[in-house]
Each structure stands twice: as structure tokens, then as C-alpha cells.
Amino acid sequence: MIRIEGIAAFVTVVEAGSVSEAARRLRLSKSVVSERLAELEKSLGGILLHRTTRKLTLTEDGTAFLERAARILREVDEAAADMAERRGTLSGPIRIAAPVTFGRMHLGPALYPFLAEHPEIELTLDIDDRRVDAASEGYDAIIRNGPIADNRLVAWKLTRSRRLLCASPDYLAREGTPSSLAELNLHRGIFYTNRGVADWRFQTPEGAVVVRAKRALGINNGDMLRDAAMAGLGIALLPAFIAGPAVREGRLAEIDVGHRPESEFIYMAHPEGRNPSAKLRAIADHLKKSFGDPPYWDPAG
């Protein structure tokens, strides 16, 4: 007989990449996770994972079984959550990924009172700036800032995300303040490398215009991008949720070049084909109210 605990152990080991990490996520010992995997393979009559001292790899049988196993777990979780929600309680596990700086500055403070109000929710919040694959990595949803590009995701807009072209007063005093896109091209730029391109895009009546300033620094973290701009290394195009306090305090100055950067959003997205749970919808609704529109962190708001 196939046991749900064995299916959960298998899916978690694959998502975690190791028995040790799976045991940590499941709050079990390594030996218990290994025993459940062995029982599952015995019940199925086939080997699901090749185990070596360095890594785990899926067998052909494991690859074939994984998608259905993950779907079974989702349906069990959704059924349990649905029963709880029918009783007026939001409960059960949920896993969300979010970027580091936004998570620290705004997402965490918005979520803490919600979680205190709903103590039966078991939220795992993975804070990482890399672009995770929500479906294959087992996330119920991701929260991101930027354009919505992945058509395998169903996105809910939480709020607008205005970006500010800014630099330190010291840099602008030394190098001058650009007043046009042509002048901006001649300045030193600090770029966010997780986007994969070292350019800025602006909206004009003729369409999008790309500006490629001289690269002073590329970095993959929003906090350090802001700090580099405040240190006078160059001009940065920063989300208002990062740059807003520094602009209000005068440590950064917003630059007007006659055109606005392309519009972006803070959004929550879940994999296409999944029926989002009531608790995920409740989290999204709470975040919309907490952030506001325009959001509270925008200096222009």
C-alpha cells in the first residue's frame, strides 16, 4: 500500500536536492526520511532515486512518478485547507519566494501581523534574488518586482512599482545633472545584474528608448545598489521601495530627464493550472491593503 508520507518524503527530497535538507524541511530525522523512501520504492516496485555520497538523481521511473506525486500532495493539502476554510480557518503549509531587499524592507513587516492573526498558517518564505521557477521548485507563489514575463504564471498585481533615476548630490555636483536621455548616455551607471542587461528603458511618445550609460558597477543586490549610488559612484535606476527613504532624506536626488522609466509592478504569481488556495488569496488581499496604491514607500505618493 502506498503511504502519503512516503510520497511527501520523495517529493521533498527531489525539491531539496538531498535527504538531509528534506529531513530539515519535514522536521524528521534523516533515517526516517530514508526509510519512507525505501518503503515507497518497495510499494511501487521500482527505484525512484539513484543515491551517491555526492548527489541524488532521478531514475526514469522517478521522473515519471514525480509530477503525479507532486500533484497528489497538492491535492491533499488543498483538500485539508478547504476543510479548514469551510470552518472559517485559514490553515496549512504554504511556500512563497520573494526578493531579498523587498522582503526585508516591506514584505516581512506586512506579513507578520497577518500571520499572527492566522496562527494555523505554516508559511515558508524563501528570500532570494534569483529568478526561481515556481512550478518545478515547489512554490505556491512568488513575489517579484518588474515586468511580468513568464506566461506559465498567473499574476496578481499587488501595487505599482515606480522606479527612480537617482544619484547622490555629491555625484551630481561633480558630474552635472543630466536633463535628457542623450545626456544620460554620457554618465556612469550602476546596474542591477540579475536582469541580465546593463541598460535602462524609458517611455517616450515614439515608444521605448534604451539608454546604456558607462558601466561604473554591476551588482545583484538592491541594498548595495542604493548604497553605491549614495557613495557617489554613479546614477542608478532604483525601485521607489528601495530609494524612497534616501530620496526623502536628501541622501539621493531624483533626476528628471523628460521621460519616465518603463512601468513595473509588485506582483504575486502562482503556476498556471493550479487552483490557488483561499489562504494564498487572503495573503494577496492583505498585501494589497498593506502596500496601498500608490504604495506608501513612494516619495511621490
From TrEMBL:
It holds the Pfam family LysR_substrate. The keyword Phosphoprotein does not apply. SUPFAM superfamilies: Periplasmic binding protein-like II (SSF53850), Winged helix' DNA-binding domain (SSF46785). Residues 2-59 form the HTH lysR-type domain. Keywords: DNA-binding, Transcription, Transcription regulation. Transmembrane segments: none annotated. InterPro entries: LysR-type_TF_proteobact-type, LysR_HTH_N, LysR_subst-bd, WH-like_DNA-bd_sf, WH_DNA-bd_sf. Belongs to the LysR transcriptional regulatory family. This is LysR family transcriptional regulator. It comes from Rhizobium lentis. The lineage of its organism: Bacteria, Pseudomonadati, Pseudomonadota, Alphaproteobacteria, Hyphomicrobiales.
